[in-house]
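Quick illustration, no need to memorize.
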Amino acid sequence: MIYSAIFKVIEKISPFLIVTPTVESFGNCAEEMQHALIRALNEGKKAIFIFPLDMFFFCRFSKNSLGVNQSLTDINSNFLYKTNAFFIYPLRLLMSIEYCIYRLYNKFTKNKRIATNPRYGINEIYNIGNESIYSTEILRTKFWDLALVDDIGVHLDGIVNRRALQGKRDLGMPDDAWFVCVHVRDSGYYGSSEGIQKQTRNSDILNYCKAFKTITQNGGWVVRIGDSNMKKIPDLDHVIDYAHSKEKSNLLDVYLIQECAFYIGTPSGPLTVANLFRRPILLTNMYEHFIDYPMRSGDLGIMKKFFSKSRRRNLSLTEQLTIQDKSDQLIYTSDDILLIENDENEIDDLVSEFINGSNAKQTNLQKDWEKARVNSGFRYYDKLCNNNSISLAQVYRFSSRIISYKGNLSNNFVASNL
């Protein structure tokens, strides 16, 4: 590939780490940018992000041809090299044309073996020391800590912030108001076209209204983010359904997440943007034990209930890990498991625990759960590697979260479900 040869030369003669984050997903794009910046920090380099251009017909690379969120690509960090357009545009154009040719070739030859989206530098982010095997020892001793997101200092620049502040005013919030961003994934964006596994990530926004009232009673505002296909929420004081607002914009999408006092979400794309900007996070309706998990110390989460059809009851957290250890598939994919959403009381209890400051210190029960979860995660990824069912880079990408994520399930949730 011509473009990759040029990128390799640039990396060889300069202190740069070149990466092409995916433009197919808002969340994956933010995650890969975050991880590239952490890798650059560890190697004393600066990252350069190069995004393909949406061109024409089948040569549009972003999801639904909507383009990558420009405000996300305009972030700043001490470990990011902000290139000028005269340098970067020719590289973007070359890469885009090359992949248009690959797509054209695939289209007329029915060949599916050639990649159709640029992914330069992604595997290299996770291939630490060019390891050829996976082991928990390598993961523990050589892999960089994803919690170093605190040290990369991602932010929007001052001019952009001032422009976005007017957008906040237009939503009706005072300049000094503190607010919470809420994103609850539902079926509105994809409709019936998405598969069962993605539907697992959906939840009902109406179950969050009780928690909204708790936030506003404590002096805060609630800003529900998302897209206009989502279910609307009832009119509530100091609650803004920004997803359906005429003020919605790419800039305000990112700015609101950057500025929120804390973020309430489900396992979905905007969660990784909140992680990128180091926002305190309350993660609800979780369905995985190892991947989408509260990231930073003080972050809290609660899981969906795992109802066993054969046992006719909800499984405890301990039982979930016991079953997981006997399988090389994630437990939520089992035909025996029915996932049940968090109800309004569970979500409100999580928010109250956070607002009251009960997340400041890890309890003994939380410590016991985290130890069991981490050990189960190591065993799971060992099995994946032994079965050769996933690439080495992807194993390190996902398993790194096991040792890096410092958050917890909420104390009350663990006490009730362990």
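The chain is about 45% helix and 10% strand.
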